[in-house]
Amino acid sequence: MGARSDVIFVRWPVQMDLRSRCRREGVPRLLVVEGGAQPPVSIDPVEDWVRPPISRDDLEARVRALQNRFNSRRIPTLDSAGNLRFGRHSITISTTQTELMKLLIERFDEVVYRNEFVHCLASRMPTLTRNSLDLHIMRLRRRLLPIDLSIRTVWGRGYMLEKAQA
Questions:
Q1: Would you state the torsion angle of the CA atoms of residues 86, 59, 32, 49, taken in this order, to the nearest 10 degrees?
Q2: How far apart are alpha carbons 11 and 48 in whole angstroms?
Q3: CA–CA dist 112, 161 (Å, integer)
Q4: Which residue ranges make up each domain of the chain?
């Protein structure tokens, strides 16, 4: 599936599994709530619901709103195999880089403090130093170049993952 701005129509509650998969992958979705079913409660900005019948104009407006919200807050996705996706691009990263990226993605566009990285990697690398963390970040920066992401150093604090500047 992958992170795209195409809105997926999901019949609710019949296609609960499809909704869950779309949710995990960050795909925008419009739930079509059937019959007397209760719509699910969701705070996900890329999910909305309608109950048929709905006019074509209203449907198109809901789809456009979902696409706009999706495009305005696009974040990278990372699967358990180390496949990192952002927009139409993807790369595979190492296990250590995956651990670092989990923190950076979780707080996309926010500072992740150095001690958080050290704590995250403590079980794998009990002797992680500031220099070795910087080396891992440097290598990760190079890996991110083809997918329009960058890691910015926030001096004296940590690092921030953001969309690469054009």
A1: 70
A2: 12
A3: 9
A4: 8-72, 77-163
Which is it for strands 111-113 and 158-163: parallel, antiparallel or unpaired?
A: antiparallel
According to CATH, the topology of domain 77-163 is: Arc Repressor Mutant, subunit A (1.10.10)
Say how far apart CA 2 and CA 163 lie, in whole Å: 18
Other beta carbons within 10 angstroms of residue 30's beta carbon come to 20
Under 8 Å between Cβ of 146 and 89: yes
Residue 50, SS3? strand
Confidence bin at 153 (pLDDT 50/70/90):
very high
Convert the pLDDT of each residue in 46-76 to its tens digit. 899 999 999 999 999 999 999 888 876 678 8
